Amino acid sequence: MKVGIDIQNYLPHRAPMLMVDLILEIDSTSVETEFLIKEDNIFVDNGILIEAGLIENTAQTCSSIVGKKYFFEDDGTENENVNVIGFISALKNLKIHALPKVGDVITTKAILVSKFVGDDYTLCTMSCESLLEDKKLLECEINLFIQKTISATT
Length: 154
Fold this sequence. Notes:
ApeP-like_dehydratase; mainly beta; globular; Thiol Ester Dehydrase, Chain A; HotDog_dom_sf
């Protein structure tokens, strides 16, 4: 059994849109995640995770590097009541080689290509791939925009 970090510490996503289970490795320029495809997943059709599910898994994997900035201080203490919004601003060179099925555990890896940090937002470009064991499922470059929003309680 692999031990990792709960992705919910780095992303605002929750079920049914949470598409990553664990962060296996993370630093300031790379991340590796794991995700078990379950039958009740909203992106599963006839026992297969559809393309949109693979892309959402990839985006959430990438977002964890940027999300870390908003959810944790430099000393590792957690920021409470943080709200962020994020979206994919571009997908480049997207290639989907195969689709995983229910019961498969996919690994997604992303490497930071570039990042621009503003006062309350971050733009970044990541190089990504998703794998089922040694079989490549997806490869792409993804641009993300993530912004801290004002909490209703502040």
